[in-house]
Please model this.
Amino acid sequence: MKVKGCDDRAVHSAADARLHHEEVLWLTTVDDEGQPQSSPVWFHWDGADALVLSRPDAPKVANVDRHPAVSLHLNGGEAGTLVVSIEATAHVGPSLTAARRAAYAAKYRAGFVRLGTDASSYFDEFSAALVARPSRVRCFETE
Model:
């Protein structure tokens, strides 16, 4: 197995592309008893941070309030797949900017249809914005 880190330019570019285009990532938060809780979530990557929208009463929101250290992972593991693992600090952010809201809506247009909803209804229900700023990104690709 050949391993290349995110500092390799081609790997970094591929990781950034996956973060822009993947539909789901895994967000891991820590509950009040110290137990890690992983959830598959929709997200928007703007090149600097990951935005995850959630119902305000979801456990992950309270977990982030108590323990802002989180991890984010893209699906991977099959041969030839770039594995991306991110350590980050998260917070419950303010309302979405119009640009970020539009970008999220464009990314998940087909997903809203699958759920039988529209962007406006989705944003009303998933109104808590969790913003995760990476502190460390680990990548490797396997051959």
Observations:
- The first helix runs from residue 9 to 21.
- The chain has a mean pLDDT of 89.
- The domain at 9-141 is CATH 2.30.110.10 (Pnp Oxidase; Chain A).
- The chain has one domain: 9-141.
